[in-house]
Amino acid sequence: MNGQQVTLLPLSDNLTKLLATAGFTNLQQNYLQYFIHRYNNRTKTSKQISQNYRLFLADDKNLGEFNLLFKEMYYPIVANRSLGSKIWDVDDNEYVDVMMGLGINLFGHNPSFIKEVLITQLDKGIQIGPQSEIVGEVAELISQFTGMERVCFSNTGTEAVMSAIRIARAVTGRNKIVIFSGSYHGHFDGTLIKANQTENNQYALPLSPGVLPNFVNDVLVLDYGNPESLEIIKTHQQELAAVLVVPVQTSRPALQPKEFLHQLRELTQATKIALIFDEMVTGFRIHPGGAQAYFGVQADIATYGKIVGGGMPIGVIAGKSKYMDAIDGGMWNYGDDSYPQTQKTFFAGTFCKHPLAMVAAKAVLQYLQSEGLSLYQKLNERTTQFVTTLNNYFVAEELPLRMANFGSLFGSASVELSEENSPASVAMGLLKYHLLDKGVHLLGITGYLSTVHTDEDINYIIQAVKDSVEQLRIGGFLPTRT
Ligand SMILES: Cc1ncc(COP(=O)(O)O)c(C=O)c1O
């Protein structure tokens, strides 16, 4: 590999100054210096690759906000291979992976039942343009799992959400939608919108430069789980095409507002607003029928992706015929007078129904069918036990940390860590790096268990958390037990 060599020692003057001026004690400064060098040594090829290609590769891969404090560790772990619950990086470090493809790998990495169908399809070729042989079967399977009448396919979750919103607007003839604070729906401009607390423009602002104010005009961003949001929806009912909801947000897994969701269903039904469940993470994870089956709420449209693609890029829009007929004009038959009668909206995509995605999805759905509910009962129960063990430990150690889970998704249930470089946010940032250093691959402190994580893997993670906490205490970043 050509390119600039990464200097491991010493820390830059700027960082040393920053540490001193940010009020870090000598103990903390020395510890941080020690740890950064240790981490850089262990993952030196990952760092080297980031440096070498930054000039050419515009990339922000899963790193979160840039923070000068962690600058020297601000690079993704570069993976070389993976199998089951493990990945290996380019320095040959082994990790128990709980990032799990950002929620894709419910069955671990490279499960043989998916690998085999992909290889078979590769042998047969990749035919884009003609219809995939099995697309209808996959649609039928998804309909059976989700209770939705009709199904169509996109390539990513973002596209699925964008299309679901377009369908809702086309069918209702209304413009505005509601989304909730804290929900991520992908990177379509129409959902890259955040709450605005000021009085004039009460409900929304662009999330980032480049998102036009015009998009914002038709979006209300409301507080999730808050009954006041229902009142606001009532007030705007005549203008609302859809309420888009992530039933359990990845960033706040402790918030599982079942009653709110039921009230939202009643209200949207009464006011003819489309209720869209974005089940990108919860779909095929919490239950075969997703969060809708778990909470006992049937949406009008639901979007899926991640797990159901078995590692291949996929997005799914599923819904009642009333909405989905806007894709193709609705059901008709040969040999009679029927024809597609519903007014259509626009939907397309070169790679939609990609043969590799279709065979992987079929394999996933058939596997889930054969395993039944017990797969979910076991996995969800193990994750709850894992989180309970961690929480018991945090309580016993008087640490201000709590975890929560929703099925096999787990994450922080602690206070919001918004203030940059506050002791709590620095400790959380460092905890992530300590876990990586100990061979636990994760994103922030959010993660996913899969069906192939063993007790040994889980105990390994728990021990890594305990060891990291002890180190952070030695470094002066976490309080010691009283
Ligand atoms: C709830 C939710 N919706 C939509 C998306 C976007 O999906 P994709 O990244 O496949 O575009 C995500 C991605 O994490 C998600 O979590």
List the helices and strands and how they pair.
Layout: H1 13-21, H2 26-42, H3 44-53, E1 79-83, E2 86-89, E3 94-97, H4 100-103, H5 112-124, H6 135-146, E4 150-154, H7 157-172, E5 176-180, E6 193-194, E7 205-206, H8 213-217, E8 219-222, H9 227-235, E9 240-245, H10 258-271, E10 274-278, H11 290-295, E11 301-305, E12 315-319, H12 321-328, H13 355-371, H14 373-396, E13 403-406, E14 409-412, H15 423-437, E15 440-441, E16 447-448, H16 455-474
Parallel strand pairs: 3-15, 5-8, 5-9, 9-10, 10-11
Antiparallel strand pairs: 1-2, 2-3, 4-12, 6-7, 11-12, 13-14, 14-16
Bound molecules: pyridoxal-5'-phosphate.
Q: How would you characterize the overall build of this protein?
A:
With 482 residues, the chain is α/β, with parallel strands linked by helices. It contains 16 helices and 16 strands. The chain has two domains: 13-108 and 374-474, Aspartate Aminotransferase, domain 1 (Alpha-Beta Complex), CATH 3.90.1150; 112-371, Type I PLP-dependent aspartate aminotransferase-like (Major domain) (Aspartate Aminotransferase, domain 2, 3-Layer(aba) Sandwich). The protein has helices at 13-21, 26-42, 44-53, 100-103, 112-124, 135-146, 157-172, 213-217, 227-235, 258-271, 290-295, 321-328, 355-371, 373-396, 423-437, 455-474, and strands spanning 79-83, 86-89, 94-97, 150-154, 176-180, 193-194, 205-206, 219-222, 240-245, 274-278, 301-305, 315-319, 403-406, 409-412, 440-441, 447-448. The strands form four sheets. A seven-stranded mixed sheet has the order 4-12-11-10-9-5-8, with helices on both faces. A four-stranded mixed sheet has the order 1-2-3-15. Helix 5 (112-124) packs antiparallel against helix 13. The structure holds pyridoxal-5'-phosphate. Residues 102, 156-158, 161, 184-186, 246, 250, 278, 280-281, 305 line the site of pyridoxal-5'-phosphate.
